[in-house]
Amino acid sequence: MIIQPHISIQNLNVHIGDNHILKNINLDIPDKKVTSLIGPSGCGKTTLLKTLNRLLDRQNDVRVDGKVLVDGENIYDPKAEVTHIRKKMGLLSQRPFPLPMNIYDNIAYGQRIHGNNKKSELDEIVEKYLRGVNLWDEVKDRLKSPATRLSIGQQQRLCLARGLAIEPEIILGDEPTSALDPISTQAIEELFLDLKDKYTIVLVTHILRQARRVSDYVGFVYMGEIIEFGPTEEVLLNPKEKLTQDYVKGFLV
Amino acid sequence: MPTSTNTIRLRSLNKKSTQKQLLKVMRSFQKFCRVAFSPTVKNKRLLKDRFVNKTFLAFTLLSISMVVLIAIGLFYKSIPLLDSTSLSNLLLSSEWKPFKEAFGFYSFIVGTLWVTAISIIIALPLSLLTGIYLSEYAHVRVRKLVLPLIELLSGIPPVLYGVWGVLVIVPLIQDRIAPHFVEFTTGYSVLAGGVVLAIMIFPLIISIIIEVFDNIPQDLRNASLSLGATQWQTIKKVVLRKSFDGIIAAVVLAISRAFGETIAVLMVCGNLAQIPQTVFDSGYPLPALIANNYGEMMSIPMYDSALMFAALLLFVIIFLFNTISRVILYRIEKRNT
Amino acid sequence: MEIRKIEENIFRFLMILSTIIISSTLFMIVYTLFSKGFGSLSWDMISKIPEGGFYIGKGGGILNAIVGSIYITLGSTFLGLLVSLPIVIYINVYAKRNATIATLTRLSSDILFGIPSIVYGAFGFTIMVYMGLKTSLLAGIITVTLMIIPILVRAIDEVVRVVPEDMSNAVFALGGTRYESAKIILRQSIPGIVTAILLSFGRAIGDAACVLFTAGFTDSIPTSLEQPAATLPLSIFFQLSSPIQEVQNRAYAAAVILTIIVLIINIAAKTASKNLSKNKI
Questions:
Q1: Which of B62, B185, B199, C100 could form a disulfide bond with B280, CB atoms 3.0-4.6 angstroms apart?
Q2: Is the confidence at residue B82, as pLDDT, over 50?
């Protein structure tokens, strides 16, 4: 059963130059669930993710048609204000990108640019979100050291905490574990399962097992189209479409 | 909303005022308000972002138009000269008598061509061989040792090259080289200028050549080597052929650098307004002419215009050469990404 | 031995020979300048301004030229940064990726980079006349600024360009504006920016043709922007053209001073990029 959608994509078409990257996408992403987008590389799943927080329009030659409604508001409305939209969504990219500053400032950065400069509040927020991603105990003694000194798995959790610290409603993950070792991957996956009570999570992944482990819904993207969308078990174990069947073949556990 | 009351007040003001001028100003202010305080702008941050966008764009456009501004500025100053003398006369006559307002640039142009040609003839083979060695043969350690030296060479100011030329090259030509060929020379000659210039353009040519070579995929070399070609054969038949346009670009860029170099050349060339017959004769390149006469420029009529014309001439030629080679290099870069 | 092997060896020999020739030129130049000028180097040289009859061999030093050069270098680098940082930020952050304006800016600063300083000098002179300025420190600074802007733009752009896009995306994803993302990118690029500044220092301090028209020359240290200013390269140039041996010797000594300054700046530029990358990925 699909509950009320948090993000609703309607007739979305994306062209980059002369290439038709996303073709007539219609998709409702349910509230407070984990939704995974799967598909072969180059199928457009990352592009789809980037249209959700409008990072895509930073590129030259990109044309986006159609609507993406977040909480009923079309983010592609010419009057829509893009930083306000992005604030609603935390992004976790393939590789962690800590900002060139210390651990504390990385978490506080989002609050600061949005006008919160109160030290006591920031202290609280930093601790809360570092605890939230189980990083607090590992870094509490070196909050003032550069974030780049952390291991890559720690960095990815830091980036997650940084995103959560601006109190978004949605978390977007673009293959967020692809650069991590198995243990860090597991840590991130467990965090997602914890977080889905409070956040809507959209995850791009090419690891089908991961999709099965963490997500409630799965969308299969192929050649810029949504081929199939539904509850995880259904799509992965009993796909209706031939293309999906071919792709998930061999995955059957 | 404050915005709408603002607009209403402005509109009512517009109606009352009869003067067209005021109306115009009001309208533009109104438009500014609409843009600056439009409902989509949530707070000061975004306003700042917009302001920065506009100002930085202005800076960028200004920097792009700099090329045109230089051309216009120099052309504007050359107009008096161009009005009085025909272009062909300026370029092809060698009569240089500023007091009689006779400005023929031919001997200076020839002087420039001499030193440039000599410098390229010396610098190209040496730089090409060095470039090939550093990118194809040399051990990484050798490369890491030699490249910084070459980069340092490019950081030495022209005036020091000039001093060095006066101390080493000029006496060398006068005492050791020239006596084998001609009866007498002071050593201050187009050859001295060419040698000093050659050293000055080494770093430029080498750095571009190495960059171009590094961009050639290793697989291409391997393909040739696996057919049993020697390394030199591979370089000759594959690497050099593949990087031909890049080498051209490097040479063109080097030519334009040599063309415009001033102080170093001025110090060793002799600066006689004559057409050199041998490489041991003095010459008088255009940049040296400009630099040497700036002092009297304002006291003789038309002289400033003539020198600005010389600068314009340099600018136009160098602009063309630079554009050609940069476009070639951009294409290479694009091809490889 | 096969002919092709012989050919290979000949060329290999030639290559090594030319590499040795080219890399030894630096040492030859530095050696010549030092051996000729070191003897005439004295404390007076760098602590005194020229006294009466300096150019016919009487006492004094070239403090005027050293200070003038420093003023011009600092002033123009400061102004140059004020202009070139916005340009680099605009083409890398504000303009979309691969936008035409970015390509055009890179192309034009590449071309401007190749324009010789004598042309900048002549152009600076026309501006000076247009604005009613006399040869002065200010005119010199403006002209040198014009000359080093392309250097700064190219060098800073090179480091800013390679900051991964995900870095700025991280800021955008937090709801940051382009301006805020630009600040992060610049912070990430500090080592490169320092290198660029040092490079433009080197270029500005060594340039003679640019200031010849615009800054003039004087024996005193300028106390305001409207006064003319001496520069080190011109001081060398003028002293060397004197027929008196003592004055010439001082030119060589001045050349040693300039060489030392330039070498320090260039080596600092090299090491800066290595040592400052504390927070870099």
A1: B185
A2: yes
Name chain B contacts of A79, Cβ cutoff 8 Å. 39-40
DSSP element (H, E) containing B289: helix B286-293
Cβ contact, residue pair A83, C177, below 8 Å? yes
**Interchain contact B46–A (C-beta under 8 A):** yes
- Could you tell me the residue ranges of all domains in chain A? 5-95+169-248
Q: Do A79 and B41 lie within an 8 Å CB cutoff? A: no
Query: Which residues of chain C lie closer than 8 angstroms to B307, CB-CB?
Result: 122
Mean per-residue pLDDT, C208-216? 89
Chain B partners of C32 at a C-beta cutoff of 8 Å? 164, 167-168
CB-CB contact of A24 with A11 (8 Å):
yes
pLDDT of A144 strictly over 90: yes
Contact C280 A89 (CB under 8 A): no
| ipTM score over 0.90, yes or no | yes
Chain C residues lying within 8 Å of B239, measured CB to CB: none
Q: Which residue is it, tokens 């216009």?
A: B72
Residue from A55, A84, A113, A169 whose CB has the most chain C CBs within 10 Å, to mutate: A113
| A81 to B45: CB separation less than 8 angstroms, yes or no | no
Token pair 């083979």: residue: B125
Neighbour tally for B10: CB within 10 Å: 15
Which chain C residues are within 8 Å of A55, Cβ to Cβ? 169, 172-173
Domains and CATH numbers, chain C: 67-231 (1.10.3720.10)
Chain C residues with CB inside 8 Å of A97's CB? 164, 166-167, 169-170, 281
Lowest-confidence range among B100-104, B146-150, B207-211, C29-33? B100-104
What pLDDT shows up at residue B42? 55
Q: Mutual orientation of helices B106-132 and B190-214 as an angle, nearest 10°?
A: 40
Tens-place pLDDT, residues A162-189: 999 988 999 999 999 988 889 889 989 9
CB pairs under 8 A between A and B: 14
Task: Report residue B299's pLDDT band, with 50, 70 and 90 as the boundaries.
Answer: confident
Q: Do B41 and A81 touch (CB under 8 A)?
A: yes
Pairing verdict, β A19-30 and A217-222: unpaired
Place of tokens 């016919």: C56
The neighbours of chain A, by the rule of 3 or more Cβ pairs under 8 Å, are B, C
Q: Residue A37 gets which letter from DSSP?
A: E
Q: What are the counts of helices (DSSP H) followed by strands (DSSP E) for chain C?
A: 12, 0
In this complex, do B40 and A113 lie within 8 Å of one another by their Cβ atoms? no
The whole-chain average pLDDT of chain B stands at: 87
Judge contact between B29 and B10, C-beta under 8 A.
yes
Average pLDDT, integer, range B279-306:
87
Chains that touch B (3 or more CB pairs under 8 A): A, C
For C124-146, the pLDDT digits (tens) are 998 888 888 888 999 999 999 99
Alpha helix stretches (DSSP H) within C132-164: 137-161
At the topology level of CATH, where does A5-95+169-248 sit?
Rossmann fold (3.40.50)
Contact A153, A142 (CB under 8 A): no
Residues 6+ apart with CB under 8 A from A22: A12, A13, A14, A44, A47, A48, A51, A224, A225
Q: How confident is the model at residue B34 (pLDDT cuts 50, 70, 90)?
A: low
CA distances from C230 to B155, C46, C136 (A): 21, 14, 10
Interface of B with C in 155-194 (CB under 8 A): 155-164, 166-168
**Whole-model pTM?**
0.86
Cβ–Cβ contact A113 with B under 8 A: yes
Q: Using CA atoms, how far apart are residues C36 and C248, in angstroms rounded to an integer?
A: 10
Which pLDDT belongs to residue B2? Answer: 43
C88 has pLDDT over 50:
yes
* Rg of chain B, C-alpha, whole Å: 29
